[in-house]
Amino acid sequence: MTFTGFPGEAFDFYAGLLADNSKSYWAAHRDAYERCVREPMLALCAELEEEFGAAKLFRPYRDLRFSPDKTPYKTHQGAHVGGYYVQIDADGLMVAGGMYAPTPEQLRCYREAVQGPPGKQLQAIVDELRAAGLQIAGDRLKTRPRGVPADHPRLDLLRHRSLYAHHGWPADPWMETPEVVHRVREYWRRLRPLVEWGHDHIGPPDFTRR
Fold it and tell me: I need a labelling partner for 172 at 20 to 30 A (CA). Which of 8, 41, 53, 106 fits?
């Protein structure tokens, strides 16, 4: 399967879904989703598989069981593999990598590592990614974890309950070409130190918890 790009219709599909997130819209535009979103995303992941592993696509349906928002469909299509993530939506393309939704035990391991020598390595990785123009994000405590002194040199990292970096591009004609493969590969390579730090110190992410 060869990736040739995301057709402009993919972004139009999600713009329409934002305006009308309903079963009737989905039924009327299901072909556009399959042809312009899902199939190109599968092809993109296949192009990257040799280097990063086999990626999985998230289902387009939202889990409504515990959500007050009952709109049935996600307004983006994401795919993930081992801490790496790629997403398309109405705004364009986004890539990310890091540590998502850790278990309580993984969070304990994360904080222990950040307080020790591995934390200096993580700080250097984060600083380098930020200097390269990536955004650092994740769920954070408003205060500090219990038992962590207020003057800890890596207090900002210790507040994180998840930690990842991301970069995005607005919808543009180059996304209709194979250039997407090169961009995603380039940024996943930049994100590799962060992803591998997470694997080494807390284990692989469980995307089913997102």
Answer: 53
